[in-house]
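Reopening closed ticket. The problem is back. First fold of the pair:
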Amino acid sequence: MGRDRLAALRAQRQNATPDLGQGDYEMQARPSPSGNGTGIDPLPAFYAEATAIQDSIQDFDDNVTRVAEFHSRSLNALDDAATQANAAQLERLTDETRQLSNSLANRIRALEKPGGAGPDAQIRKNRIDVVRTKFMATLQRYQDVERQYRQQYRQRVERQFKIVKPDATPDEVAAVVNDDQGGGNQVFAQALTSSTRYADTRAAYREVQERHQDIRRIEQTLGELAQLFNDMATLLSEQEEKIDAIETAAAGVAHDTEGGQKHTETAVKHARSARRKRWICFWLTIIIILAAVGIGVGVYFSQHPVKSS
C-alpha cells in the first residue's frame, strides 16, 4: 500500500513538472548593435538592395540589346506579316523596358535617402555611386541605340520616297522624312498621282507610314530617357551639394574646435599667471607686515630700553 502511494506521488510530480526539452525553449532574437531600434542591421539590407538593383540594371541592358535587334529586323523585314509581327514584339519590349527603367530610377532614389552618419556612410556613398553610374551608362546606351535607328529609319523613308519620285527636291524629301504636321503625306500623295509604278508606289507609301510610326515611338522613348537621365543627374548634383555642406560643416566644427582649444590654452595661461601674481602679492604682503612688525618692535625697544636690575 505504501509503495502504491509513493508511485502515485512520483507520477504527480512528473506531470506537474514542465518538459524542458529542446523543443520548449523559446529562442529570442538578439538585437543587432545597429542602434536603429528595429533590431535589424541596415547595412546588409542596403547591400542586398544595391545588388538587386544592379541585377535589374543588367536586365535593363539586355533589353536594350534586344530592342536593337528588333530594330534591325524591322529594317530588314521582307514582307508585311513579318514587319507587323516584329513591330508588335518591339512595342511590347519597349513598354516593358520603360517600366523597368522607371522602377530602377525610383529604387535608386530610395537607395539614396540619407542613411545617417557613421563609419558606414562612405561605404554607402561609394556603392550608390557605382549603381547610379551603371544605370546612367545604360540609359545613355539606350539613347544611342534609339538615335542610331531613328537615323536609319529616316534614311529608309528617304529611299522609299525617291523610288516614287526620283527627282524629288531636298525640301520635298525633308517634308516626307520629318513628316511635319502631316506635310509628308501630302507630298507623297501628290507623287502617287504622277507615278507610273502604282504597285511599287503603294508599297513604298505603306512602308513610309510604318517608318513614321517607328520614328514617333523612338522620339517618345528618347524624350523619356532624356528626362530620366536629367533626373539622375539632378539627384547626383543634389547629393554632391549635401556632401559639400556636410564637409563644410565638419570643417567649420574643426575650425571652431581648434579656436576653442587655443582660447582654452590662453585662458589657462592667464589663470596661471594670475594665480602666480596672487601668490607674489600674498608673500609681499607677508613680508611687508613682518617688516612693519620688526620696525615697530625695534622702535619700541629703542625708546624703552630694558633697565638692568
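Second fold of the pair, where the issue appears:
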Amino acid sequence: MLSLSIHSPTTVTFLIKPISPIPKSSFSGVKIQHFCSVPVATRASLSPRSSVVMMAKREEEMKEIRTKTTEEINEEVVELKGELFMLRLQRSARNEFKSSEFRRMRKRIARMLTVKREREIEDGINKRLSRKLDRQWKKSIVVRPPPSLKKLQEEEAAAEAEKST
C-alpha cells in the first residue's frame, strides 16, 4: 500500500507498506553491477545512409529480376538452390565457406519467387492453381550439378592435365 501525506507545501512524505512481508533469511545476497564506459552501438545509432544504400541495392536487384522472363527466373532459382545445397555440403564436411552466403542466396531465391508469383497474380492464376503448377514444375526439373561444382570439376581436370604434361 502506498500512501501520500503532505504536511506543508514544501514537504512530501511517502509511506510504503508492503502487502506481504518478505521472510528474512541468512543469505544476504550478492550485488553485481556492470559499468560500461564504451557506448554500445544500436541500429538506431547507425547512420541512416547505410539503410538507404541497402534499400537502393535491393530495388536495383528487384528491377534486374523483373527484366527476366519467367523461364530465366526458373532456371536461376534451380541454380541457386543447387548452390545452396553445395553450401550445406561444405558446412557438413566442415570445409571453409562464407556463412553469409546462406542468407544472401535464400533472400535472392525468395525475391525471384515473389516476382514469379506477382506475374501469376497479374495473369489471374489463383493460389491453388499456382501450387499445382509449382508442383508440376518441380517434378520437371532435371537434376544437374550447380555452376560452382562444374567450375570446380573443370579446375580439377585442368590441374590433372597440367600434372600429366
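Update: turned out to be a display glitch only; the data is intact. The CA atoms of residues 41 and 163 lie 53 Å apart. The mean pLDDT is 76. Please close again.
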